[in-house]
């Protein structure tokens, strides 16, 4: 779609699923930037199946019985014509309707068909890679930029990885970066039920992801200096950050790898549809400094006992997620099978406000790339940290809205269209600075020889 047609659309963003658990928090975050000085966000549409529930969501988000005059649009993922109508009137759709493997594809299809840009808060690798396989070429042709994982999954991981890489310098070579996610709260930590449902369905459909990957053409292989690191212990103690960690099967490592593979295939990054020479030089300089490394994510706690709830939830999902009655049990009684970590009604406002996260990035590599091939062990350790508020209802809306504002403000400097992971699109923009201005910090903790 050409720029003139895109600019003539009445809605800058449409929030689909505006009355859902996460959707209403996204609405609240969006209202902070509506018609503020220098914002590109002038018009919003709130969309979903039930206009009355959306009206209540708007009242809650605006903390007023007389909310601002914002368009409310009836749109349903089971009604393709309603989605096409919404997308034809919107520059950008923010999709908060999950699980995405069940409800996401009709929205992507409508966006691609109408040349509308698309962001979501998905953390489901199969959905993301399926959308890339099915819609990338048409999205490029129609000028629709489709970017999943624009919430806590997986912007903190993507931007945190890049922030760690920036600390290495031109001669150094990182070999691996492990992220340790530590969730904290003065009250109970309660997760988003949609996240739990996605995890259960992910286990049930794990074979489909492998089939999809085998059916697709081979992508570029990452060239990482030094030997492949060992897997290590199941429960690992990371001395320098004083945390115990166990592997977290999140989308983060998959999303970061997709960004690194795309960068390997496009060493200067992805050119903007109508970018300036100044932005092109900035983009090339940024991506020239990025380096591939082995990347993994672990859930972390100050003691091994703190990992019991996560390990128990993982065991139950693994045991029961592969047959229909087991899945019914898991989704019917999430609090029982996760020891209270997930519950259908979600967290209270007090639990949301008391929670926070710290994500430590522990990088190991070589002070000089020339010694990497002959070295038997790494000689440099760099630790960085990303911190922010509660992950599902506070950090996710912050991240999603900042991605939306970057896209609206810098659209000509971003790719014309295509289906991409967020890092390769937003890495060279001012997204990190925007996140820092909105409560998510990036810090260098230490840099030392080892």
From TrEMBL:
InterPro entries: NAD(P)-bd_dom_sf, Saccharopine_DH-like_oxidrdct, Sacchrp_dh_NADP-bd. The chain crosses the membrane at residues 307-330. GO terms for cellular component: lipid droplet; mitochondrion; plasma membrane. Residues 13-146 form the Saccharopine dehydrogenase NADP binding domain. One of its GO terms (biological process) is glycolipid biosynthetic process. Keywords: Membrane, Transmembrane, Transmembrane helix. The keyword Nucleus does not apply. Belongs to the saccharopine dehydrogenase family. This is Saccharopine dehydrogenase-like oxidoreductase.
């Amino acid at each position: 779609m050409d720029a003139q047609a895109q600019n003539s659309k009445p809605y800058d963003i449409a929030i689909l699923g505006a009355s859902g658990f996460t959707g209403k928090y996204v609405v609240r975050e969006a209202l902070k930037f509506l018609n503020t000085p220098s914002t590109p966000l002038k018009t919003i549409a709130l969309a979903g199946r039930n206009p009355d529930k959306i009206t209540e969501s708007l009242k809650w988000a605006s903390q007023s019985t007389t909310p601002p005059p914002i368009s409310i649009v009836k749109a349903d993922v089971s009604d393709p014509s309603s989605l096409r109508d919404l997308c034809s009137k919107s520059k950008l759709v923010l999709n908060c309707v999950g699980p995405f493997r069940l409800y996401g594809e009709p929205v992507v299809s409508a966006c691609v068909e109408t040349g509308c840009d698309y962001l979501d808060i998905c953390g489901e690798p199969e959905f993301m890679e399926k959308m890339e396989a099915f819609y990338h070429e048409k999205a490029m042709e129609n000028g629709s930029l489709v970017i999943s994982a624009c919430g806590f999954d997986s912007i903190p991981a993507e931007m945190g990885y890049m922030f760690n890489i920036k600390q290495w310098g031109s001669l150094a070579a990182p070999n691996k970066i492990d992220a340790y996610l530590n969730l904290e709260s003065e009250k109970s930590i309660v997760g988003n039920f949609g996240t739990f449902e996605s995890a259960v369905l992910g286990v049930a459909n794990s074979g489909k992801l492998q089939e999809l990957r085998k059916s697709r053409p081979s992508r570029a292989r990452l060239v990482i200096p030094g030997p492949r690191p060992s897997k290590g212990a199941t429960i690992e103690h990371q001395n320098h950050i004083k945390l115990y960690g166990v592997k977290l099967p999140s989308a983060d490592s998959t999303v970061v790898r997709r960004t690194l593979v795309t960068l390997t295939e496009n060493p200067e990054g992805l050119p903007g549809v109508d970018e300036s020479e100044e932005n092109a030089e900035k983009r090339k300089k940024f991506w020239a400094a990025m380096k591939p490394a082995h990347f993994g994510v672990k859930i972390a706690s100050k003691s091994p006992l703190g990992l019991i709830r996560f390990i128990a939830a993982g065991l139950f999902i693994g045991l029961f997620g592969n047959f229909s009655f087991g899945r019914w049990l898991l989704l019917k009684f999430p609090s029982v099978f996760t020891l209270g970590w997930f519950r259908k009604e979600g967290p209270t406002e007090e639990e949301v406000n008391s929670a926070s996260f710290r994500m430590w990035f522990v990088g190991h590599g070589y002070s000089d790339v020339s010694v990497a091939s002959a070295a038997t062990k790494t000689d440099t350790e760099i630790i960085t940290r990303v911190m922010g508020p509660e992950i599902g209802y506070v950090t996710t809306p912050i991240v999603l809205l900042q991605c939306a504002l970057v896209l609206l403000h810098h659209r000509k400097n971003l790719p014309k269209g295509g289906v991409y992971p967020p890092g390769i699109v937003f890495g060279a923009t001012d997204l990190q600075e925007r996140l820092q201005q909105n409560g998510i910090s990036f810090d260098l903790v230490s840099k030392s020889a080892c």
